[in-house]
């Protein structure tokens, strides 16, 4: 018969634990703790508290920042998970000095950092510059579209939401009439309970939609004239946006990245689908961050700004030229003008996105009909054709940008754009673990986006700085 070693769950073991020894030199948590204690100006948090004479003592902002930033570096974004880690994980226990803040305290601290998050971001930016991690010779701006804590099923214009409310009313009416006509003797009790529960859920959805329609009497205006944006009942500041993984309801996290070590010098989240309107805030944000941190008065002096086709518009190019910024913004036709892509059409399979049933052949001018009332052409498939990008040939600003972009210098510099900014999004999304925003509202989502960009910059400091080399 097999024999096993004796064991007992009744025994006790006392293990001496020193929190300072758990945060060892050469680790990211040591660098994080040192930076929060030495480089961050935490006096900006004092205005949040009024307990100097009466009231319970508050948790030290340094402790909360350490556990939040360390949790974000591990991809932990939920306050309950952070609070649980402070009770179970020895590193979190050491960073928090075993104070064990409640999850509501953590959640409130994050959501109310609107006035302090910019100061923290600039403190880290100052540290990066003092360590020589910012080159100020080239910047690349791009956006990362992420879903937020709401569903796209709650999106639509007022007319669409009213139509959805009428459908829900019809479903509720059908269930009530069905219950009224059922014979109590022959009905299934379990089925009746399920249908009653479904009717209650439909009533909650209906009340939520009706309440939102009463509070929001108008639709959101789109970028074009007479166009409307789809609103969202749960988070109206978010937007419906197409991504490589399909259409999501969320925000665009914009980041401007320095080329030397891929340090994020500006970060902000916007509930906008179109990126054209986000270039000017990015330019102003970079200048303000550099001037407030005394790095330099003009961040773009002697530097080149790179942006992809999403930021290309006549107004943006005019704005950059008026401010004297050396910029390269790609237009939607830049690959067709590149001689390296001259033979690319030979290998492209014909795709009919609209699944129209008509012969694939070349059409002539006589095959198109002109609609004088709407000032457009009607193609043989019955679709309207508008003159797309005609202003490329009619505006001097765009002509100058195309000429500048098609030069050898322009093509060479723009080829570096993807290698500067895209790895930052890859690190934040895949390595750190930001798959989606867990908060609602533009202010809170912007705080979360800045926190993740701060973690990215902290990792750069930890990796390349000489402070933690010993």
Strand-helix topology:
Blueprint: H1 19-22, H2 28-38, H3 61-73, H4 79-88, H5 90-95, H6 103-111, H7 117-130, E1 138-147, E2 155-156, H8 158-181, H9 189-215, E3 220-221, E4 228-229, E5 231-232, E6 239-243, E7 246-258, E8 264-270, H10 279-292, E9 304-307, H11 314-322, E10 326-329, E11 369-371, E12 376-378, E13 384-385, H12 396-405, H13 408-414, H14 417-432, H15 442-464
Parallel strand pairs: 1-9, 9-10
Antiparallel strand pairs: 1-7, 2-5, 3-4, 6-7, 7-8, 11-12, 12-13
Helix pairs in contact: 2-3, 3-15, 4-6, 7-15, 8-9
Structural class designation:
alpha+beta
Radius of gyration in whole Å, from Cα? 28 Å
Count of DSSP-assigned helices: 15
* Strand residues, percent: 5-15%
Give a written overview of the molecule:
The protein has 470 residues and is an alpha+beta fold. It has 3 domains: 94 residues, no CATH class; 204 residues, no CATH class; 61 residues. It is 42% helix and 13% strand. It is built from 15 helices and 13 strands. The strands form 4 sheets. Strands 1, 6, 7, 8, 9 and 10 form a 6-stranded mixed β-sheet that branches. α2 packs antiparallel against α3, α7 runs parallel beside α15 and α8 packs antiparallel against α9. About 1% of the residues have low confidence.
């Amino acid at each position: 018969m097999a024999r096993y070693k004796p064991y007992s769950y009744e025994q006790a073991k006392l293990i001496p634990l020193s929190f300072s020894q758990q945060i060892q030199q050469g680790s990211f948590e040591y660098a994080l703790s040192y930076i929060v204690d030495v480089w961050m100006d935490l006096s900006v948090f004092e205005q949040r508290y009024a307990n100097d004479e009466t009231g319970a003592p508050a948790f030290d902002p340094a402790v909360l920042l350490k556990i939040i930033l360390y949790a974000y570096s591990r991809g932990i974004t939920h306050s309950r998970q952070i609070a649980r880690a402070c009770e179970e994980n020895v590193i979190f226990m050491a960073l928090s000095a075993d104070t064990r803040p409640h999850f509501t305290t953590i959640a409130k601290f994050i959501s109310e950092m609107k006035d302090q998050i910019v100061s923290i971001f600039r403190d880290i930016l100052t540290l990066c510059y003092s360590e020589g991690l910012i080159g100020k010779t080239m910047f690349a701006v791009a956006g990362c579209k992420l879903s937020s804590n709401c569903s796209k099923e709650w999106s639509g214009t007022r007319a669409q939401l009213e139509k959805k409310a009428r459908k829900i009313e019809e479903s509720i009416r059908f269930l009530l009439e069905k219950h009224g006509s059922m014979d109590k003797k022959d009905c299934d009790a379990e089925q009746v309970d399920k249908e009653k529960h479904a009717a209650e859920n439909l009533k909650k959805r209906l009340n939520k939609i009706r309440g939102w329609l009463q509070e929001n009497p108008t639709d959101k205006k789109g970028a074009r004239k007479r166009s409307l944006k789809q609103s969202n009942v749960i988070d109206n500041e978010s937007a419906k946006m197409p991504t490589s993984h399909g259409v999501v309801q969320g925000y665009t996290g914009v980041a401007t990245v320095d080329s030397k070590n891929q340090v994020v010098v500006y970060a902000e989240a916007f509930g906008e689908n179109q990126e054209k309107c986000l270039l000017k805030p990015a330019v102003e944000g970079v200048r303000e961050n550099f001037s407030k941190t005394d790095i330099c008065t003009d961040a773009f002096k002697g530097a080149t700004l790179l942006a992809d086709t999403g930021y290309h518009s006549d107004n943006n190019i005019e704005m950059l030229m008026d401010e004297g910024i050396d910029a390269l913004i790609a237009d939607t036709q830049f690959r067709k003008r590149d001689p390296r892509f001259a033979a690319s059409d030979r290998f492209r399979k014909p795709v009919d996105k609209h699944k129209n049933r008509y012969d694939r052949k070349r059409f002539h001018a006589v095959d198109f009909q002109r609609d004088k009332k709407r000032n457009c052409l009607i193609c043989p498939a019955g679709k309207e054709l508008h003159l797309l990008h005609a202003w490329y040939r009619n505006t001097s600003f765009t002509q100058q940008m195309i000429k500048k972009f098609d030069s050898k210098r322009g093509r060479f510099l723009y080829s570096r754009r993807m290698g500067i900014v895209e790895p930052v999004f890859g690190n934040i999304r895949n390595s750190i673990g930001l798959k989606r925003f867990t908060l609602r509202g533009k202010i809170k989502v912007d705080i979360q986006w800045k926190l993740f960009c701060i973690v990215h910059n902290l990792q750069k400091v930890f990796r390349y700085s000489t402070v933690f080399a010993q």
